[in-house]
Amino acid sequence: xxxxxxxxxxxxxxxxxxxxxxxxxxxxxxxxxxxxxxxxxxxxxxxxxxxxxxxxxxxxxxxxxxxxxxxxxxxxxxxxxxxxxxxxxxxxxxxxxxxxxxxxxxxxxxxxxxxxxxxxxxxxxxxxxxxxxxxxxxxxxxxxxxxxxxxxxxxxxxxxxxxxxxxxxxxxxxxxxxxxxxxxxxxxxxxxxxxxxxxxxxxxxxxxxxxxxxxxxxxxxxxxxxxxxxxxxxxxxxxxxxxx
Length: 244
Known about the structure:
Blueprint: H1 2-13, E1 16-21, H2 25-39, E2 43-48, H3 50-58, E3 65-67, H4 72-79, E4 88-92, E5 95-99, H5 108-113, E6 120-123, H6 129-140, H7 144-147, E7 151-154, H8 157-166, E8 171-175, E9 189-192, E10 202-207, H9 217-225, H10 229-236
Helix pairs in contact: 2-10
């Protein structure tokens, strides 16, 4: 048993470890498959809220590349000496409102204050950029005080998505990429939130210093792959826009 365990650890250790913001958990799977086809390199994605992943990296987590849901966290890591290169943009996100309630979802501001809507999911604004964007939008439309008691905060955007899929909440703010994650959309209505109501969701990627301990070549290949035509096609086909 000890020998088998040692082999499993050795095999696991060969995988390129990529920290990924929860909003990109759908697209990262497709990127991983395509990257492996092209390079033969195995990868492992660790999913979480951008802020929590950043804290883990600063505390020594063995991640080699970090795909954040914003640019603030990668910039913070680079300024702290945790990155090998200055972060770059890999995608632009889109905030949507989603739910299973009756009524015109395009008039979502009216729906949120309707008594039929009891619970509204938002990702934690302190650690999840999409949660911060939702908070900004609610403030823009002056809805904070009216619906404050209805808000249910998820640890990350993936938890918000789970709430929406399981019907724990009536409505919620999430990423447009959610619609491409092989979920059952038959019961869910959605509408894009006016991008003027929140800060632009620029998603950054950073090549982490830890990758040097693993040789750095595989991490650099994935980092560069994200700028390739193949990767851009996958990203743009899964609910994101490409940086200009």
